[in-house]
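Long-time lurker, first post. I've been practising inverse folding by hand and with some scripts of my own, and I keep getting stuck on stretches where the C-alpha cells seem ambiguous. Below is the full C-alpha cell string for one chain I'm working on. Before anyone asks, I'm not after the true native sequence, just a reasonable design that respects the backbone. If someone could post their per-position residues I'd love to compare against what I wrote down in my notebook.
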C-alpha cells in the first residue's frame, strides 16, 4: 500500500553518531457528517460516510504500522463541519469519531494539531458556531505553539486567525512593524519568538499556504492546476503577500508545510536573508489530503525525517558541530475511488446483468415446459362403468409405484383423479430417501405415519420452482441476495482485519 521509496527517508543514516526522528504529516482528513453532502438523501449520506470512514481507517492503520513515526502532525481541517453550530454533546461525539479513526497504539507518541478553516471557521456566518475556537482548543490543543524535535524548532501557526488579523491590519492601514498585535494571536506569537532569537533550524507548519506568483508551478506530482490567490465562503486559498513576507522575514524557516489545498504542491520562496541552515530560499510543501473524498484520485501524506548529529565524547570541545539536516518525501495512497469505479462497479454490473439474463432465460424456458406439460382435455367416455374400472386400475398402479399395498390406510380418495404433482417411479424400501437438483438438495422421510420433506436451497434456488410460479423479479432479487452476501461478508471480514490486525 505504501511504496518502499516513500519509506527510504526513514532509513538510519550512515553516521554512527546521527539520530533520526520520523514525523508523519497528515493534511485535511476532514471526516464527514450528516451536513457534508446536503444534496444527498439520508441513505446516501450514511453510505458515503461509512465508505469514507472505512477508507480512512484502513489507510491510517497501514500508514502508522509501516511508517512507525516518532511524532504525528495534523495540518488542520480535521472535521468537515467542526465549525458548525451544534450542541456540545454532538461536537464531542464528532471529535470522538475522529480519534477513533486515527487511533494510536502508542498513546505516548507526540501528536500535534493545527486548526483549519473547517475546524474553527474563517470569517463570520450564521452557520459558524461562536464556540468553535474554544471547542477546538479544549479538544485538540492550543492554536499557536512550538516544540523541539530532533534539535529542530517546530512551529505551529494558526493561519486562520492570522488571515483575520491581517484583514483587520490592512483595513486600518498599519504595517506589520507598527501593528499592535492582538494579545495571544498569531502575530503576537511570531513576534515574541523572533525577538528572543533562535539558532536551531525552524520547520514551520501552517494550514493555509503562503502567497506565490499566479503562474507558480507546483511540480510534476500535482494532479491538476496550481494554487492561486483567492477566497470565498469560509476559506482563503493563500495568505496575503504581506502576511507571507512577515512569516519569512521573522522566522527564516528551513522548511514549510501547509495543507488546505488537498493536492500536492512544491514551491520555493526566496528569503530576505539566509536561514539557520544557510539557504537563501525555503521550500514549501503543500501536503496532499489523506482522504479519498477531497477531489483527488490518490490521497497521501508527507514523511519528514529530522536528522541531528550527536557529538562524540572526544569532540565535545570542538566547535562548531555539524548542523542538523532535513529529509522529506511525499507518500501516496491507492486510488481507492478508481478501484471502486473501474474494478468493483464493472464486476457488480456484470454480475447483475448475468443474473437478470439467467432469470429471463429461466422464465422463458419454464413457461414453455409448463405449456407442454398441460394435459389435453379428453372426450367424455360413453361408458361410465368402463371409465370407473380404468380409474381404479390406474390408481392401483399408482399405489404400487409408491410401494403401498391395497390394504394400507391412506388419506386419498380412490375415486379422485390422479394427482399431477406426484411422480410415478420405482418403489423404495428405505424409509429415508434423498433427492438433489443443481440448485437444491432435499430429503424425504416418514415421521409419525406421515411423509415429510426437508429442502436446502442453494444460490439461484428459484430454478426448482419455475419462474412462472415465483415471478421474474422475485427470482431475480432472490438470486442477487444469494450471490451478494458471500463477497459482502468477505469484504467486511477483510476490512475488519485490515483495521484491527
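-- Answer (accepted) --
I ran through it position by position. Result:
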Amino acid at each position: 500500500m505504501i511504496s518502499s521509496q516513500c519509506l527510504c527517508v526513514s532509513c538510519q543514516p550512515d553516521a554512527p553518531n546521527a539520530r533520526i526522528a520520523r514525523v508523519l504529516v497528515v493534511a485535511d482528513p476532514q471526516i464527514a457528517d450528516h451536513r457534508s453532502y446536503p444534496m444527498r438523501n439520508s441513505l446516501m449520506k450514511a453510505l458515503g460516510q461509512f465508505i469514507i470512514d472505512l477508507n480512512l481507517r484502513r489507510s491510517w492503520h497501514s500508514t502508522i504500522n509501516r511508517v512507525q513515526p516518532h511524532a504525528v502532525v495534523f495540518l488542520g481541517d480535521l472535521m468537515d463541519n467542526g465549525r458548525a453550530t451544534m450542541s456540545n454533546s454532538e461536537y464531542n461525539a464528532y471529535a470522538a469519531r475522529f480519534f477513533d479513526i486515527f487511533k494510536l497504539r502508542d498513546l505516548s507518541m507526540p501528536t500535534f494539531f493545527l486548526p483549519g478553516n473547517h475546524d474553527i471557521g474563517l470569517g463570520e456566518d450564521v452557520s459558524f458556531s461562536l464556540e468553535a475556537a474554544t471547542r477546538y482548543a479544549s479538544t485538540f490543543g492550543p492554536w499557536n505553539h512550538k516544540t523541539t524535535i530532533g534539535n529542530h524548532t517546530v512551529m505551529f501557526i494558526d493561519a486562520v486567525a492570522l488571515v483575520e488579523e491581517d484583514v483587520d491590519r490592512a483595513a486600518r492601514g498599519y504595517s506589520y512593524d507598527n501593528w499592535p498585535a492582538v494579545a495571544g494571536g498569531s502575530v503576537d506569537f511570531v513576534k515574541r519568538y523572533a525577538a528572543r532569537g533562535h539558532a536551531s533550524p525552524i520547520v514551520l507548519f501552517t494550514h493555509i499556504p503562503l502567497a506565490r506568483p499566479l503562474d507558480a508551478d507546483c511540480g510534476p506530482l500535482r494532479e491538476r492546476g496550481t494554487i492561486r490567490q483567492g477566497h470565498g465562503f469560509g476559506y482563503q486559498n493563500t495568505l496575503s503577500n504581506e502576511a507571507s513576507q512577515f512569516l519569512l522575514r521573522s522566522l527564516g524557516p528551513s522548511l514549510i508545510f501547509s495543507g488546505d489545498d488537498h493536492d500536492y504542491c512544491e514551491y520555493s520562496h526566496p528569503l530576505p536573508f539566509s536561514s539557520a541552515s544557510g539557504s537563501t530560499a525555503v521550500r514549501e510543501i503543500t501536503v496532499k489530503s489523506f482522504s479519498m473524498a477531497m477531489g483527488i484520485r490518490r490521497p497521501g501524506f508527507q514523511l519528514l525525517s529530522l536528522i541531528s548529529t550527536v557529538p562524540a565524547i572526544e569532540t565535545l570541545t570542538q566547535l562548531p558541530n555539524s548542523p542538523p539536516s532535513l529529509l522529506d518525501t511525499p507518500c501516496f495512497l491507492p486510488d481507492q475511488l478508481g478501484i471502486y469505479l473501474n474494478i468493483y462497479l464493472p464486476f457488480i454490473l456484470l454480475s447483475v446483468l448475468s443474473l437478470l439474463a439467467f432469470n429471463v432465460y429461466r422464465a422463458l424456458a419454464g413457461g414453455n415446459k409448463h405449456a407442454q406439460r398441460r394435459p389435453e382435455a379428453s372426450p367424455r367416455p360413453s361408458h361410465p362403468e368402463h371409465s370407473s374400472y380404468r380409474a381404479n386400475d390406474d390408481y392401483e398402479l399408482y399405489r404400487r409405484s409408491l410401494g403401498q399395498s391395497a390394504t394400507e390406510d391412506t388419506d386419498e380418495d380412490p375415486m379422485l383423479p390422479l394427482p399431477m404433482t406426484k411422480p410415478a417411479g420405482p418403489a423404495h424400501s428405505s424409509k429415508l430417501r434423498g433427492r438433489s437438483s443443481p440448485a437444491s438438495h432435499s430429503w424425504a422421510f416418514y415421521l409419525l405415519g406421515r411423509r415429510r420433506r426437508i429442502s436446502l436451497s442453494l444460490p439461484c434456488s428459484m430454478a426448482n420452482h419455475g419462474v412462472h410460479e415465483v415471478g421474474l423479479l422475485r427470482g431475480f432479487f432472490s438470486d442477487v441476495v444469494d450471490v451478494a452476501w458471500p463477497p459482502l461478508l468477505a469484504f467486511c471480514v477483510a476490512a475488519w482485519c485490515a483495521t484491527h490486525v
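A couple of notes from the structure itself: Confidence is low (pLDDT under 50) at residues 313-322, 405-436, 461-468. The first helix runs from residue 4 to 7. Happy to go over any region you disagree with.
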